[in-house]
Prior knowledge:
The chain is α+β, with helices and mostly antiparallel strands. It has helices at 4-15, 53-65, 75-83, 91-107, 114-126, 143-161, 168-180, 187-198, 206-220, 226-249, 260-269, 271-274, 281-289, 296-306, 383-393, 395-398, and strands at residues 26-36, 39-49, 134-136, 139-141, 353-362, 369-378, 400-405, 408-414, 417-418, 425-431, 434-435, 450-457. Helix content is 43%, strand content 17%.
Amino acid sequence: MLGLPLAMGVLLALVGCMATEHCGEWERVETAESLWMGHEIPVTLPLLPAAPQDLVCQLLQHLEGSIKPGEVPNPSILLAMNLAGANTKNPNYKLLLQEIKEEAVRRAQKAMTSGQVALYVLALLSSCQDPRQVHALGQTIDLIPILQQKTDEEMAELEDKGHPKTTLFSMSLDATALCLARADGYRGPAVALAKEMLSPNSHITVDTRAVVTLALVCAYDNVEDPEVRDLLREAVWTVTNDFLDEQEERKGMIGNIYSMGLALQALEASRDFYAPRDWDCAQAFAVVTNHTFKLPMAIAQVLPALVGTSYLDVATLSCDAPTDLCPNLGRHRVPRGMMIPPGASQIPQSSQDITVHYSIINKLQGTPFHYNISVMVAGDSTLLEVLERAEKKDPENFSFKTEQTFWGPMVVSIHGLAASDNDRTYWQFLSSGKPLDQGVGTYKPHSGEHIQAIFSTY
Protein backbone atom coordinates (compact mmCIF):
# COMPACT_ATOMS: atom_id res chain seq x y z
CA MET A 1 0.00 0.00 0.00
CA LEU A 2 1.08 3.54 -0.53
CA GLY A 3 2.46 5.17 2.60
CA LEU A 4 0.37 7.72 4.48
CA PRO A 5 2.59 10.71 3.59
CA LEU A 6 2.19 10.12 -0.15
CA ALA A 7 -1.52 9.42 0.23
CA MET A 8 -1.91 12.71 2.07
CA GLY A 9 0.16 14.40 -0.60
CA VAL A 10 -2.25 13.18 -3.27
CA LEU A 11 -5.17 14.57 -1.32
CA LEU A 12 -3.51 17.88 -0.55
CA ALA A 13 -2.50 18.30 -4.19
CA LEU A 14 -6.16 18.13 -5.10
CA VAL A 15 -7.42 20.23 -2.20
CA GLY A 16 -4.79 22.84 -2.92
CA CYS A 17 -6.44 23.95 -6.15
CA MET A 18 -8.47 27.13 -6.04
CA ALA A 19 -12.24 26.82 -6.13
CA THR A 20 -12.36 28.64 -9.46
CA GLU A 21 -9.75 26.45 -11.19
CA HIS A 22 -10.57 23.42 -13.31
CA CYS A 23 -9.69 20.56 -10.96
CA GLY A 24 -7.95 17.66 -12.62
CA GLU A 25 -7.97 19.40 -15.99
CA TRP A 26 -5.57 18.24 -18.64
CA GLU A 27 -3.02 20.60 -20.07
CA ARG A 28 -4.08 20.71 -23.72
CA VAL A 29 -2.72 21.76 -27.06
CA GLU A 30 -4.84 22.51 -30.11
CA THR A 31 -3.80 20.72 -33.27
CA ALA A 32 -4.72 21.47 -36.83
CA GLU A 33 -8.16 20.45 -37.92
CA SER A 34 -8.33 16.77 -38.75
CA LEU A 35 -10.62 14.92 -41.13
CA TRP A 36 -12.70 12.52 -39.06
CA MET A 37 -15.77 10.65 -40.31
CA GLY A 38 -16.10 13.15 -43.13
CA HIS A 39 -15.96 16.22 -40.89
CA GLU A 40 -13.15 18.65 -40.19
CA ILE A 41 -12.91 19.13 -36.44
CA PRO A 42 -10.24 20.60 -34.14
CA VAL A 43 -8.53 17.83 -32.22
CA THR A 44 -7.17 18.33 -28.72
CA LEU A 45 -4.26 16.31 -27.47
CA PRO A 46 -4.04 15.59 -23.73
CA LEU A 47 -0.52 16.09 -22.43
CA LEU A 48 -0.21 15.97 -18.66
CA PRO A 49 -2.96 15.59 -16.06
CA ALA A 50 -3.19 18.22 -13.32
CA ALA A 51 -4.33 15.44 -11.00
CA PRO A 52 -1.27 13.55 -9.65
CA GLN A 53 0.05 11.33 -12.41
CA ASP A 54 0.72 8.45 -10.01
CA LEU A 55 -2.94 8.46 -9.02
CA VAL A 56 -4.11 8.39 -12.64
CA CYS A 57 -1.67 5.62 -13.49
CA GLN A 58 -2.70 3.50 -10.53
CA LEU A 59 -6.34 3.74 -11.50
CA LEU A 60 -5.49 2.88 -15.09
CA GLN A 61 -3.57 -0.13 -13.80
CA HIS A 62 -6.63 -1.37 -11.98
CA LEU A 63 -8.79 -0.97 -15.10
CA GLU A 64 -6.28 -2.77 -17.29
CA GLY A 65 -6.05 -5.59 -14.76
CA SER A 66 -9.82 -6.03 -14.82
CA ILE A 67 -9.84 -6.96 -18.53
CA LYS A 68 -10.18 -10.73 -18.84
CA PRO A 69 -10.37 -12.78 -22.04
CA GLY A 70 -13.77 -14.36 -22.55
CA GLU A 71 -15.66 -12.04 -20.21
CA VAL A 72 -18.31 -9.63 -21.49
CA PRO A 73 -16.33 -6.49 -22.45
CA ASN A 74 -17.17 -3.28 -20.61
CA PRO A 75 -17.27 -0.26 -22.97
CA SER A 76 -17.15 2.13 -20.00
CA ILE A 77 -13.67 0.85 -19.19
CA LEU A 78 -12.44 1.50 -22.72
CA LEU A 79 -13.99 4.96 -22.55
CA ALA A 80 -12.20 5.79 -19.32
CA MET A 81 -8.87 4.41 -20.50
CA ASN A 82 -8.97 6.54 -23.64
CA LEU A 83 -10.04 9.69 -21.80
CA ALA A 84 -7.23 9.19 -19.29
CA GLY A 85 -4.56 8.66 -21.95
CA ALA A 86 -3.96 4.91 -21.70
CA ASN A 87 -1.34 3.18 -23.80
CA THR A 88 -3.25 1.99 -26.87
CA LYS A 89 -0.50 -0.52 -27.67
CA ASN A 90 -1.04 -2.37 -24.40
CA PRO A 91 -2.19 -5.97 -25.07
CA ASN A 92 -5.12 -5.68 -22.66
CA TYR A 93 -6.26 -2.49 -24.39
CA LYS A 94 -6.14 -4.18 -27.80
CA LEU A 95 -8.01 -7.19 -26.42
CA LEU A 96 -10.78 -5.01 -24.99
CA LEU A 97 -11.19 -3.00 -28.19
CA GLN A 98 -11.40 -6.16 -30.31
CA GLU A 99 -13.88 -7.82 -27.96
CA ILE A 100 -16.06 -4.72 -28.01
CA LYS A 101 -16.16 -4.83 -31.81
CA GLU A 102 -17.04 -8.52 -31.75
CA GLU A 103 -19.73 -8.05 -29.11
CA ALA A 104 -21.24 -5.21 -31.12
CA VAL A 105 -21.42 -7.37 -34.24
CA ARG A 106 -22.96 -10.28 -32.32
CA ARG A 107 -25.48 -8.52 -30.10
CA ALA A 108 -26.13 -4.85 -30.95
CA GLN A 109 -29.10 -5.41 -33.23
CA LYS A 110 -31.17 -7.85 -31.18
CA ALA A 111 -29.71 -8.28 -27.71
CA MET A 112 -28.67 -4.81 -26.51
CA THR A 113 -30.71 -1.98 -25.05
CA SER A 114 -30.41 1.47 -26.56
CA GLY A 115 -28.13 2.59 -23.73
CA GLN A 116 -25.81 -0.35 -24.24
CA VAL A 117 -25.50 0.40 -27.96
CA ALA A 118 -24.84 4.05 -27.08
CA LEU A 119 -21.97 3.09 -24.76
CA TYR A 120 -20.45 0.95 -27.51
CA VAL A 121 -20.69 3.90 -29.91
CA LEU A 122 -19.01 6.19 -27.36
CA ALA A 123 -16.28 3.64 -26.64
CA LEU A 124 -15.53 3.24 -30.34
CA LEU A 125 -15.50 7.01 -30.89
CA SER A 126 -13.02 7.39 -28.04
CA SER A 127 -10.79 4.86 -29.82
CA CYS A 128 -11.01 6.82 -33.12
CA GLN A 129 -13.07 3.99 -34.60
CA ASP A 130 -16.00 4.75 -36.88
CA PRO A 131 -19.20 3.28 -35.34
CA ARG A 132 -20.72 3.30 -38.82
CA GLN A 133 -18.20 0.70 -39.96
CA VAL A 134 -17.49 -1.82 -37.22
CA HIS A 135 -15.47 -4.74 -38.61
CA ALA A 136 -15.34 -8.02 -36.67
CA LEU A 137 -15.97 -11.73 -37.15
CA GLY A 138 -15.94 -11.31 -40.92
CA GLN A 139 -18.83 -8.84 -40.82
CA THR A 140 -19.31 -5.08 -40.93
CA ILE A 141 -22.19 -3.33 -39.17
CA ASP A 142 -23.35 0.27 -38.80
CA LEU A 143 -24.26 1.00 -35.18
CA ILE A 144 -25.81 4.40 -35.86
CA PRO A 145 -29.10 3.30 -37.49
CA ILE A 146 -29.36 0.55 -34.86
CA LEU A 147 -29.00 3.15 -32.13
CA GLN A 148 -31.40 5.50 -33.87
CA GLN A 149 -34.07 2.80 -34.12
CA LYS A 150 -33.73 1.90 -30.44
CA THR A 151 -33.80 5.58 -29.47
CA ASP A 152 -36.99 6.05 -31.48
CA GLU A 153 -38.52 3.18 -29.51
CA GLU A 154 -37.55 4.92 -26.25
CA MET A 155 -39.16 8.14 -27.44
CA ALA A 156 -42.34 6.44 -28.62
CA GLU A 157 -42.90 4.83 -25.24
CA LEU A 158 -42.08 8.07 -23.44
CA GLU A 159 -44.73 9.89 -25.46
CA ASP A 160 -47.27 7.06 -25.09
CA LYS A 161 -46.77 5.97 -21.47
CA GLY A 162 -44.90 8.83 -19.84
CA HIS A 163 -41.69 6.85 -19.44
CA PRO A 164 -39.09 5.52 -21.91
CA LYS A 165 -38.82 1.86 -22.88
CA THR A 166 -35.85 1.45 -20.54
CA THR A 167 -34.69 4.47 -18.52
CA LEU A 168 -33.96 8.18 -18.83
CA PHE A 169 -30.32 7.25 -18.14
CA SER A 170 -30.24 5.14 -21.31
CA MET A 171 -32.02 7.83 -23.31
CA SER A 172 -29.39 10.34 -22.22
CA LEU A 173 -26.59 8.07 -23.40
CA ASP A 174 -28.48 7.64 -26.69
CA ALA A 175 -28.74 11.38 -27.27
CA THR A 176 -25.10 11.93 -26.32
CA ALA A 177 -23.83 9.20 -28.65
CA LEU A 178 -25.95 10.35 -31.59
CA CYS A 179 -24.87 13.94 -31.03
CA LEU A 180 -21.15 13.13 -30.81
CA ALA A 181 -21.37 10.85 -33.85
CA ARG A 182 -22.85 13.80 -35.75
CA ALA A 183 -25.94 11.78 -36.54
CA ASP A 184 -29.48 13.03 -36.78
CA GLY A 185 -31.98 12.10 -34.12
CA TYR A 186 -30.52 13.56 -30.93
CA ARG A 187 -32.57 16.76 -30.88
CA GLY A 188 -35.95 15.17 -30.05
CA PRO A 189 -34.59 13.14 -27.12
CA ALA A 190 -32.64 16.17 -25.86
CA VAL A 191 -35.78 18.33 -25.80
CA ALA A 192 -37.72 15.56 -24.03
CA LEU A 193 -34.94 15.13 -21.47
CA ALA A 194 -34.77 18.88 -20.82
CA LYS A 195 -38.52 18.96 -20.14
CA GLU A 196 -38.14 16.03 -17.72
CA MET A 197 -35.43 17.91 -15.83
CA LEU A 198 -37.66 20.97 -15.52
CA SER A 199 -40.79 19.06 -14.49
CA PRO A 200 -41.75 19.79 -10.86
CA ASN A 201 -42.96 16.20 -10.52
CA SER A 202 -39.65 14.64 -11.55
CA HIS A 203 -37.72 12.69 -8.93
CA ILE A 204 -34.60 11.71 -10.82
CA THR A 205 -31.37 10.29 -9.43
CA VAL A 206 -28.10 12.20 -9.51
CA ASP A 207 -26.39 9.85 -11.96
CA THR A 208 -29.30 10.16 -14.39
CA ARG A 209 -29.36 13.95 -14.12
CA ALA A 210 -25.61 13.97 -14.71
CA VAL A 211 -25.76 12.04 -17.99
CA VAL A 212 -28.79 14.11 -19.04
CA THR A 213 -26.62 17.20 -18.53
CA LEU A 214 -23.93 15.80 -20.81
CA ALA A 215 -26.53 15.09 -23.50
CA LEU A 216 -28.02 18.57 -23.24
CA VAL A 217 -24.65 20.33 -23.37
CA CYS A 218 -23.78 18.44 -26.57
CA ALA A 219 -27.18 19.23 -28.10
CA TYR A 220 -26.90 22.90 -27.13
CA ASP A 221 -23.60 23.17 -28.98
CA ASN A 222 -25.12 21.73 -32.15
CA VAL A 223 -28.64 23.17 -32.51
CA GLU A 224 -29.45 26.63 -33.86
CA ASP A 225 -33.12 27.06 -32.90
CA PRO A 226 -33.09 29.80 -30.20
CA GLU A 227 -36.14 28.42 -28.38
CA VAL A 228 -34.58 24.96 -28.16
CA ARG A 229 -31.28 26.42 -27.00
CA ASP A 230 -33.07 28.43 -24.28
CA LEU A 231 -34.82 25.27 -23.08
CA LEU A 232 -31.58 23.28 -23.01
CA ARG A 233 -29.71 26.06 -21.20
CA GLU A 234 -32.43 26.40 -18.56
CA ALA A 235 -32.43 22.65 -17.90
CA VAL A 236 -28.63 22.46 -17.59
CA TRP A 237 -28.59 25.56 -15.37
CA THR A 238 -31.24 24.00 -13.12
CA VAL A 239 -29.50 20.64 -12.75
CA THR A 240 -26.01 21.99 -12.20
CA ASN A 241 -27.11 24.56 -9.65
CA ASP A 242 -28.97 21.82 -7.80
CA PHE A 243 -25.71 19.82 -7.80
CA LEU A 244 -23.73 22.78 -6.50
CA ASP A 245 -26.32 23.47 -3.79
CA GLU A 246 -26.23 19.84 -2.66
CA GLN A 247 -22.45 19.78 -2.65
CA GLU A 248 -22.35 22.86 -0.42
CA GLU A 249 -24.95 21.43 1.96
CA ARG A 250 -23.34 17.99 2.17
CA LYS A 251 -19.70 19.11 2.32
CA GLY A 252 -18.67 17.79 -1.07
CA MET A 253 -21.05 14.89 -1.66
CA ILE A 254 -23.52 14.88 -4.57
CA GLY A 255 -25.95 11.98 -4.42
CA ASN A 256 -23.85 9.04 -3.22
CA ILE A 257 -20.23 8.13 -3.77
CA TYR A 258 -21.09 6.06 -6.84
CA SER A 259 -22.86 8.93 -8.58
CA MET A 260 -19.98 11.34 -7.93
CA GLY A 261 -17.97 10.39 -11.03
CA LEU A 262 -20.76 11.29 -13.45
CA ALA A 263 -21.74 14.36 -11.41
CA LEU A 264 -18.17 15.67 -11.59
CA GLN A 265 -18.06 15.03 -15.34
CA ALA A 266 -21.30 16.98 -15.74
CA LEU A 267 -20.10 19.95 -13.68
CA GLU A 268 -16.81 20.12 -15.57
CA ALA A 269 -18.52 19.97 -18.97
CA SER A 270 -21.15 22.60 -18.13
CA ARG A 271 -19.14 25.39 -16.50
CA ASP A 272 -20.39 27.97 -18.98
CA PHE A 273 -23.97 27.23 -18.00
CA TYR A 274 -23.71 27.97 -14.28
CA ALA A 275 -21.12 30.77 -14.61
CA PRO A 276 -20.40 33.15 -12.98
CA ARG A 277 -21.06 30.84 -10.04
CA ASP A 278 -17.91 29.08 -8.87
CA TRP A 279 -17.58 25.34 -8.33
CA ASP A 280 -15.48 24.25 -5.37
CA CYS A 281 -14.13 21.24 -7.22
CA ALA A 282 -11.43 20.64 -4.60
CA GLN A 283 -14.11 19.90 -2.02
CA ALA A 284 -15.78 17.38 -4.32
CA PHE A 285 -12.46 15.77 -5.27
CA ALA A 286 -11.58 15.34 -1.58
CA VAL A 287 -14.73 13.25 -1.11
CA VAL A 288 -13.82 11.05 -4.07
CA THR A 289 -10.17 10.55 -3.13
CA ASN A 290 -11.09 9.60 0.43
CA HIS A 291 -13.22 6.70 -0.77
CA THR A 292 -12.02 3.18 -1.53
CA PHE A 293 -13.25 2.14 -4.96
CA LYS A 294 -13.29 -1.61 -5.54
CA LEU A 295 -15.36 -1.98 -8.69
CA PRO A 296 -13.77 -1.23 -12.08
CA MET A 297 -17.08 0.30 -13.21
CA ALA A 298 -16.94 2.86 -10.41
CA ILE A 299 -13.33 3.72 -11.28
CA ALA A 300 -14.28 4.00 -14.95
CA GLN A 301 -16.82 6.72 -14.17
CA VAL A 302 -14.65 8.74 -11.79
CA LEU A 303 -11.32 8.58 -13.66
CA PRO A 304 -12.34 10.90 -16.55
CA ALA A 305 -13.41 13.54 -14.03
CA LEU A 306 -10.05 13.34 -12.24
CA VAL A 307 -8.27 14.32 -15.46
CA GLY A 308 -10.79 17.02 -16.36
CA THR A 309 -12.51 15.19 -19.18
CA SER A 310 -16.00 13.85 -19.76
CA TYR A 311 -17.82 11.67 -22.25
CA LEU A 312 -18.21 14.79 -24.40
CA ASP A 313 -14.49 14.68 -25.19
CA VAL A 314 -14.55 11.26 -26.87
CA ALA A 315 -14.91 12.54 -30.43
CA THR A 316 -12.01 14.97 -30.24
CA LEU A 317 -9.26 12.79 -28.82
CA SER A 318 -6.16 12.38 -30.95
CA CYS A 319 -5.26 8.75 -31.52
CA ASP A 320 -2.27 9.50 -33.73
CA ALA A 321 0.00 11.03 -31.09
CA PRO A 322 1.51 8.96 -28.27
CA THR A 323 -0.46 9.31 -25.04
CA ASP A 324 1.24 6.74 -22.83
CA LEU A 325 1.38 8.77 -19.63
CA CYS A 326 2.25 5.70 -17.57
CA PRO A 327 5.32 3.99 -19.06
CA ASN A 328 5.90 2.17 -15.78
CA LEU A 329 2.33 0.88 -15.59
CA GLY A 330 2.38 -2.46 -13.80
CA ARG A 331 4.99 -1.34 -11.27
CA HIS A 332 2.76 1.20 -9.55
CA ARG A 333 1.46 0.32 -6.12
CA VAL A 334 -2.15 0.77 -5.16
CA PRO A 335 -3.10 4.15 -3.63
CA ARG A 336 -4.59 4.30 -0.18
CA GLY A 337 -8.12 5.69 -0.10
CA MET A 338 -8.81 5.37 -3.83
CA MET A 339 -9.12 1.71 -4.69
CA ILE A 340 -8.03 -1.76 -3.67
CA PRO A 341 -7.37 -4.76 -5.87
CA PRO A 342 -9.78 -7.70 -5.74
CA GLY A 343 -9.22 -9.81 -2.65
CA ALA A 344 -7.10 -7.19 -0.89
CA SER A 345 -8.04 -5.24 2.20
CA GLN A 346 -6.92 -1.96 3.71
CA ILE A 347 -8.19 -2.56 7.24
CA PRO A 348 -8.20 -5.63 9.47
CA GLN A 349 -11.49 -7.47 9.05
CA SER A 350 -13.53 -8.47 12.06
CA SER A 351 -13.59 -12.21 12.70
CA GLN A 352 -16.46 -11.85 15.17
CA ASP A 353 -19.82 -13.09 13.92
CA ILE A 354 -22.71 -10.65 13.63
CA THR A 355 -26.48 -11.02 13.38
CA VAL A 356 -28.29 -9.42 10.45
CA HIS A 357 -32.08 -9.18 10.16
CA TYR A 358 -33.52 -9.62 6.69
CA SER A 359 -37.04 -9.13 5.33
CA ILE A 360 -38.54 -9.72 1.89
CA ILE A 361 -41.75 -7.85 1.05
CA ASN A 362 -44.09 -7.93 -1.93
CA LYS A 363 -47.29 -5.89 -2.01
CA LEU A 364 -47.10 -5.16 -5.70
CA GLN A 365 -47.76 -8.26 -7.75
CA GLY A 366 -49.61 -11.54 -7.30
CA THR A 367 -50.10 -12.91 -3.79
CA PRO A 368 -48.59 -10.49 -1.24
CA PHE A 369 -45.94 -11.84 1.11
CA HIS A 370 -43.73 -10.63 3.94
CA TYR A 371 -41.12 -12.92 5.48
CA ASN A 372 -38.51 -12.17 8.14
CA ILE A 373 -35.37 -14.01 9.13
CA SER A 374 -32.25 -13.39 11.23
CA VAL A 375 -28.94 -14.93 10.24
CA MET A 376 -25.46 -15.01 11.71
CA VAL A 377 -22.52 -14.28 9.41
CA ALA A 378 -18.88 -13.27 9.73
CA GLY A 379 -18.33 -9.59 10.56
CA ASP A 380 -16.89 -8.74 7.15
CA SER A 381 -19.62 -10.47 5.11
CA THR A 382 -21.30 -8.85 2.14
CA LEU A 383 -25.05 -8.60 1.78
CA LEU A 384 -24.83 -11.33 -0.86
CA GLU A 385 -23.45 -13.67 1.79
CA VAL A 386 -26.35 -12.71 4.09
CA LEU A 387 -28.81 -13.65 1.34
CA GLU A 388 -27.00 -16.93 0.78
CA ARG A 389 -27.14 -17.76 4.48
CA ALA A 390 -30.85 -16.90 4.61
CA GLU A 391 -31.53 -19.15 1.62
CA LYS A 392 -29.62 -22.00 3.22
CA LYS A 393 -31.56 -21.57 6.47
CA ASP A 394 -35.00 -21.26 4.82
CA PRO A 395 -34.84 -22.17 1.11
CA GLU A 396 -38.62 -22.31 0.71
CA ASN A 397 -39.08 -18.61 1.45
CA PHE A 398 -35.68 -17.00 0.83
CA SER A 399 -34.54 -18.54 -2.44
CA PHE A 400 -33.11 -15.94 -4.85
CA LYS A 401 -31.36 -15.55 -8.19
CA THR A 402 -28.75 -13.08 -9.42
CA GLU A 403 -27.39 -11.89 -12.74
CA GLN A 404 -23.89 -10.57 -13.23
CA THR A 405 -23.60 -6.91 -14.27
CA PHE A 406 -20.74 -4.45 -14.62
CA TRP A 407 -21.65 -3.24 -11.12
CA GLY A 408 -21.45 -6.77 -9.70
CA PRO A 409 -24.22 -9.29 -9.00
CA MET A 410 -27.79 -7.98 -9.20
CA VAL A 411 -30.67 -9.77 -7.50
CA VAL A 412 -33.34 -10.46 -10.14
CA SER A 413 -35.64 -12.86 -8.28
CA ILE A 414 -36.61 -13.57 -4.66
CA HIS A 415 -39.11 -16.16 -3.47
CA GLY A 416 -39.82 -16.99 -7.11
CA LEU A 417 -40.87 -13.41 -7.95
CA ALA A 418 -38.73 -12.09 -10.80
CA ALA A 419 -38.03 -8.52 -11.80
CA SER A 420 -39.28 -7.54 -15.24
CA ASP A 421 -38.16 -4.88 -17.71
CA ASN A 422 -41.59 -4.99 -19.33
CA ASP A 423 -43.36 -4.35 -16.02
CA ARG A 424 -40.56 -2.03 -14.86
CA THR A 425 -40.23 -3.95 -11.59
CA TYR A 426 -37.13 -4.72 -9.52
CA TRP A 427 -36.02 -5.74 -6.03
CA GLN A 428 -34.95 -2.69 -4.04
CA PHE A 429 -32.75 -3.12 -0.97
CA LEU A 430 -33.10 -0.71 1.95
CA SER A 431 -31.66 -0.16 5.42
CA SER A 432 -33.58 1.96 7.91
CA GLY A 433 -35.94 2.90 5.10
CA LYS A 434 -33.17 4.28 2.88
CA PRO A 435 -32.05 2.66 -0.39
CA LEU A 436 -28.57 1.15 -0.26
CA ASP A 437 -25.96 2.97 -2.32
CA GLN A 438 -24.03 -0.23 -3.06
CA GLY A 439 -24.89 -3.55 -4.61
CA VAL A 440 -25.32 -6.83 -2.76
CA GLY A 441 -21.82 -7.90 -3.76
CA THR A 442 -20.10 -4.97 -2.04
CA TYR A 443 -22.40 -3.70 0.73
CA LYS A 444 -21.38 -4.98 4.18
CA PRO A 445 -24.13 -4.88 6.83
CA HIS A 446 -23.30 -4.10 10.45
CA SER A 447 -24.35 -6.07 13.50
CA GLY A 448 -28.05 -5.77 14.23
CA GLU A 449 -28.84 -4.09 10.92
CA HIS A 450 -32.24 -4.73 9.33
CA ILE A 451 -32.12 -5.12 5.56
CA GLN A 452 -35.35 -5.06 3.58
CA ALA A 453 -35.82 -6.29 0.01
CA ILE A 454 -38.99 -4.70 -1.37
CA PHE A 455 -40.47 -5.53 -4.76
CA SER A 456 -40.82 -2.12 -6.41
CA THR A 457 -41.39 -0.25 -9.66
CA TYR A 458 -39.23 2.30 -11.44
